[in-house]
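Checklist before submission:
- one chain only
- standard amino acids only
- sequence pasted in full

Submission:
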Amino acid sequence: MLPSTAGPSSCSFLAFGGRIPLLLPVFGKDCCQVLKRAGLVQVGGVLLFSSFFWVQQSQAAQPRIVEVPAGPAFVQLPGASEIKARSGQTLQTNSLLKTKKTGRMQVMLDSGRQFRMGGDAQLRLGSANVELLKGSIIGWIQSGASRAKPFNIKTRLATASIQGTTVFIKYSNETFKVLSWEGTVTCETRTGQRYTLTSGQQLSLDLSSQTEEVKDYLEELDSNILKRNGVSSVPEGGEELFPEPGPNKFGEIKMTWKSLEPIAVDEAEKRLKISPLITGFSKPIDTLSEIQRELGLTLPSKQSSVDNLSVDGPSDY
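Returned file contents:
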C-alpha cells in the first residue's frame, strides 16, 4: 500500500547568505509556497543590506571636519548660530568656518579633496568650491583620487583651480599670494588675467601698490559683499559671495600681478618645518611625499612638528 500524500513532509532551504540550512515541516502541496516566500525574504535582506551600505557611503561623502588641533575655531551652519568647531562634525553647503589667533582646522569635502585653515582665517563652503574671505589655506587632492572636476578656491581677487595638486593661498589686507607646492595650479583673476603655476612657482599681488582705480574697485566689491551677506552671516539660497563678473565689466581694470621666482630648496625646507598648515596637525599633510619629490626636499622631522605648535602667530605657509 502506497503512503498517503496528505501527511506532513519536510522542505529544506538556505537562510540569508546561503550558509544556514533550515529544515521546516510543511505539507507537500505547500512546499512551493514556502520556497517562494523564502526567496522573497532573501531578496528583501539583500535590498536592506544594500540600502544600509548606500546610506553609509552617502554619509561618508558628506563634508566634515577632520581635525581641530588648536583653537579658537568656529562653525556656523546655514540658519544656525555659531558654535565651537570639533573633530568629526558634519558640515553643509554654505557653512561658514572661522579661526582666530593660532586656531587651525582640517576639512574633508569629498573623496580626495581636503583643506587646512590657518589662524585668523574665514571661509565659506560652496556647493563645489571653497570661498576664502581672508587668511591662509592649503588645499589638495590626494594622489589617485578622481580628477573629473577641479578643486576651486575662490577669493574676491582670483580663483585657483587644482587637479591632483597642492596649493597654498594667503589673503590679507596687504597681499594676495598663491604658491603651487606641487603640480599645476591655474589662477584666473576677476579682471580676466590667467596664470599657470607649476611646482614651486608663486604668484603675488601687492594690494598697497595698486592704482587708485583698482583700490576703488576693491572697496566697491567689499561693500557689495558686506551689503548682500556680511562676513559674519551665512548667505542664503546658495548665492556665491564672489559671483563671476559680467562680460567686460572689469575688462579695463588691470591689476599688477607678480610672478615670483620659484621657491628655493632651502627656503622650501624651512617653510615646511615651521608651517602649522603642514606639520601642525596630528600627521603631516597627505601630499608631503609628492612635495618632497617635486622640489627635492627632505622630510620634516617629528621634532620640528612638535616645536611648531609653540609658534605664536600663523605662519605664511
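Reviewer check: The two ends are 95 Å apart (CA to CA).
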